[in-house]
Amino acid sequence: MFWQREVLRDAVSMTFNQTWEYDLPKTGLLGDLILYLSSTENGQPFLTAERWRLIDYITKIEIIGDGSTIIKSYDGRQAVASAWHDDLVLPTSMWCTGSNVPHRQFIPIHLGRWLMDELFGLDLSRFNQVTLKITNDATSTQFTTDIKVTIIAYWIRESAAGLRGYLREELWKEWDPVAAGTEYSDMPTDLPIRRILLRARPGVNTGPVRNVSSMINLMSNIKYTFKTGQTLVFEGSMRNLGHLSILELGKYAETNTNVDKTDEEGYEVGVGYVEHGVVSESSSTTTPSATGSVGGSHIQDSKQEVKNRATDQPLQGVWKGFGMLHNVPLFRAVKDDLSDLLDPEARKVVKVDITCATGTTIAGTARNAKNAIILSRLVR
User: Fold this and answer.
1) Which residues contact 343 (CB under 8 A, 6 or more apart)?
2) In 186, 220, 277, 313, which residue has its Cα 20 to 30 A from 306's Cα atom?
3) pTM higher than 0.85 for the full model?
4) What is the rounded CA–CA span in Å between residue 94 and residue 321?
5) Which residue, among 265, 272, 308, has the nearest Cα to 289 in the 3D structure?
6) CA 35 distance to own-chain centroid
7) Residue 301 has what pLDDT?
8) What's the start-to-end Cα distance of the chain, in Å?
9) What is the DSSP letter of 190?
10) What is the bridge-based pairing of β-strands 69-74 and 182-186?
11) Are 349 and 228 in contact (CB under 8 A)?
12) Which residues pair with 277 in a beta bridge?
């Protein structure tokens, strides 16, 4: 057995505000797809914009078998978050703004448990046709060129053992939280569950860009049970679950930013609950001014704030905490052979009930808060 890395498409154009499709080869054992997306900023359109990264404009990524079977389905930010939870490594990117700067994003899509998994992946011959679809809502206001797409496939070649199945991952449920309201969810029983991610994206205001709440208020209480509530598995706040996730994963969620924003504007750093942040001045010119910006350290908030902006001196930042792109795992199978998968048929009914804190602000002028459950399940 050996791994073959093949560039299936190299820097092909994806038109703004469209769905781009590519039919994968009809046979082969596919371990991973790596997407590389790039474009160039049109001047400085993000000085006061809520969405400032290329990844923010990738509204959907899908892998679909025979036109209707979901293999993967989520937006760009979720795809990056899911890959991080597989590999515990943030994919290479340029989360950077400035005048006419390039934007780049790598997005790993694993059909197995992680990059180069020898046991699990997708046998393309299971379907007559498997199609990759990428949807964006970018325009020429944000970027000067169309979005370039490169696709790299990781193939398992000369495998005598074959594969034990692939991992289907999707945005299973999304809802508008209500202050003091509880969302009740019964997990589906048709497939064993490898991971349950909880995602809480706060609402956002414009002028200035600020979160109107926080992920820990959007999920102030989480109750996870078996046997229709008879067996308690977890009950507690998103704050507690998030802190536990650092210990259980053995990893902080950590991101890097380089952003030029108008004075007192906020910007999303990608860590849902910031515990530590370091900000320093950088320069997009060869002669930076003597005085410049400092970062407003709004600890615990995924939106950080620019203070005392100086022209051509963007802020470099390193952020760490929990909640990669507002995702925290509620359950994950940790054994290498997936022998500890959650069997929802045997445990039924598996319930996840999520309460939003009293008094939590939901609506924002840029976008409203959204809660979600993302399921990764094994298809044998």
Assistant:
1) 192
2) 220
3) yes
4) 20
5) 308
6) 14
7) 78
8) 21
9) S
10) unpaired
11) yes
12) 319
pLDDT of 290: 47
Neighbouring C-beta atoms of residue 60, cutoff 10 Å: 17
Q: Is 85 exposed, middle or buried (0-12, 13-18, 19+ CB in 10 A)?
A: buried
How many Å apart are CA 53 and CA 106, to the nearest integer? Answer: 13
Beta strands in 192-286 (DSSP E): 193-201, 204-205, 210-211, 221-226, 231-236, 253-259, 266-268, 271-281
Residue 26 to residue 4: CA distance in whole angstroms: 16
Interval 33-86: pLDDT, tens: 999 999 999 999 999 999 999 999 999 999 999 999 999 999 999 999 999 999
CA 89 to chain centre: 12
Taken in order of first residue, the domains within the chain and their CATH numbers are 1-164 (2.70.9.20), 168-380 (2.70.9)
- HEC per residue, 70-134: EEEEECHHHHHHHHHHHHCCCCCEECECCCCCEEEEEEEEECCCCCCCCCCCEEHHHCCCEEEEE
Query: Side-chain half-sphere of 71: how many Cα atoms within 13 Å?
Result: 29
Q: How far apart are CA 19 and CA 309, in angstroms?
A: 37
- Reply yes or no: is the peptide bond before residue 208 cis, omega within 30 of 0: yes
Q: In the structure, how many helices (H) and strands (E) does the chain have?
A: 3, 26
Buried b or exposed e, range 189-208, using 16+ CB within 10 angstroms? eebbbbbbbbbbbbbbbeeb
Q: Rounded to whole angstroms, how far apart are CA atoms 369 and 176?
A: 6
Q: How confident is the model at residue 363 (pLDDT cuts 50, 70, 90)?
A: very high
309 pLDDT band, cuts 50/70/90, is low
Integer Rg of the chain from CA: 21
Task: Give the burial class of 338: count Cβ atoms within 10 A of its Cβ; 0-12 exposed, 13-18 middle, 19 or more buried.
Answer: middle
Tell me what percent of the chain is helix, strand and coil, each rounded to the nearest 5: 10, 45, 45
Check whether the bond before 101 is cis (ω within 30° of 0).
no
Burial profile 28-48: b = 16 or more Cβ within 10 angstroms, e = fewer: bbbbbbbbbbbbbbbebbbbe
